[in-house]
Amino acid sequence: MKKIDVKTMDQEKIVGSYARYDLVADHGKGAICVDEDGKEYIDFTAGIGVNSLGFCDEGWIKAVTKQLKKLQHASNLFYTEPQTRVADILTRRTGLKKVFFANSGAEANEAAMKVARKYSNNKYGNDINWIMTLENSFHGRTMAAITATGQDSYHKEFYPFLKHSIYCQPNDLEDLRRKVTDKTCAIMLEIIQGEGGVENLEPDFVKEVEELCRQKDMVFIVDEVQTGIGRTGKLFAYEYFGVRPDIVTFAKGIGGGLPIGGALFGEKVCDVLRPGNHGTTYGGNPVACAGALEVLGRMDEAFLKEVEEKGAYMKEKLSALPQVASVSGMGLMIGVELKEKNAKKVVDQALAQGLMTLTAKEKIRLLPPLTITYEEIDKGLKILERILALA
Ligand SMILES: Cc1ncc(COP(=O)(O)O)c(C=O)c1O
After folding, report:
1. Which residue's alpha carbon is at the smallest distance from atom 3 of ligand 1?
2. In CATH, what number is assigned to the domain containing residue 47?
3. What is the CATH number of the domain that holds 79?
4. At which of 266, 298, 330 does a domain end?
């Protein structure tokens, strides 16, 4: 194929909805990405928490290509084995009862919100339909998901939004109790607000949300799109707080790089959807599910423990840097607040020096592949340390 100038053609032909960094990703292996000129980068992004096994993991490639040669798609009008197997693993490992498969995080949250409204509608009539989410949250870009997202910066210019949405201040028990009414049907939250700046929720707050949902028969939804599938050192981050959500949404890391998302439903809501109520053509696609099976199959106790340990190791090293004000997150989902430097500038400088990182609000955000080695972590942290030390 003729070589093209990717950057120029991209800017000309692709809508400008992404502020891309100056890197044309060509290929990769594990936690190393290689650009079109052969320059290597250490990857502390995992495709924004997607490539949980890193680039081109051998086991994952084998699983995906094996399925690809067998059956790439059949539609949700027919049964397929990989989808059933993923659902079996997720339900057995969480104790939740059933799964709806989608293709992305936003779609997973759409399904969750639709189910919450239908649950309340079926039981109490049309009136109880308010959905509460948190200020500073992020739940995706479709109209319902963006409505649920409690950040004005994502809203402006796209009004009007879904009616009957309300936002509560994170970790503010008083605000929570004041804003829940007899018309509220669901509360949705992220255990760590990822796009919101890697802000951890407090266990007491999450427990109170659960308690209120039980008392008032509301649906308790946890959005684990970024925190889920091993990212924090547990299969799902809610496990750290000993709560039992009615719905858990997932996407990103489960496919290991292929588009798949979904919602897990507990006893209360697992039979709300009936044939024709909801669906999506590609949801639970066999090839994406074959990737998910490999990812989930690798995530045993030892793997998850390592994620926790690597996260603790990174956090300790980062906290010791004099330019760092604080470090947040859990496992390999890490936010770094800087004392003075501008995070976006540091991320740009890191990229130029061969390290891929992200921002989240005013912080540097690190989401390395869960399989990253200590050697790669050390190399990446050295680059960051050097940049932070620059005058
Ligand atoms: C917590 C959370 N929910 C939902 C989404 C949306 O996921 P997607 O981009 O796959 O629609 C994201 C994406 O960053 C997320 O972090």
Report:
1. 139
2. 3.90.1150.10
3. 3.40.640.10
4. 298
- SS3 assignment, position 330: strand
User: Domain range for residue 25?
Assistant: 6-56+301-389
Q: Say how many domains are in the chain.
A: 2
The pLDDT tens digits of the residues spanning 242-263 come to 999 999 999 999 999 999 999 9
Of the residues 265, 298, 331, the one at which a domain ends: 298
Q: If we measure between CA atoms, which residue out of 118, 95, 120, 111 comes closest to residue 218?
A: 120
**How far apart, in whole angstroms, are the C-alpha atoms of residue 283 and residue 303?**
27
251 lines ligand 1 (CB under 6 A): yes
pTM over 0.70, yes/no: yes
> Does any ligand 1 atom lie closer than 6 A to the CB of residue 139?
yes
3-state class of 57 per DSSP?
coil
Ligand 1 binding pocket mutation candidate from 17, 109, 252 (most atoms within 8 A of CB): 252
Q: State residue 126's pLDDT score.
A: 87
For residue 180 the two structure tokens come to: 């829940």
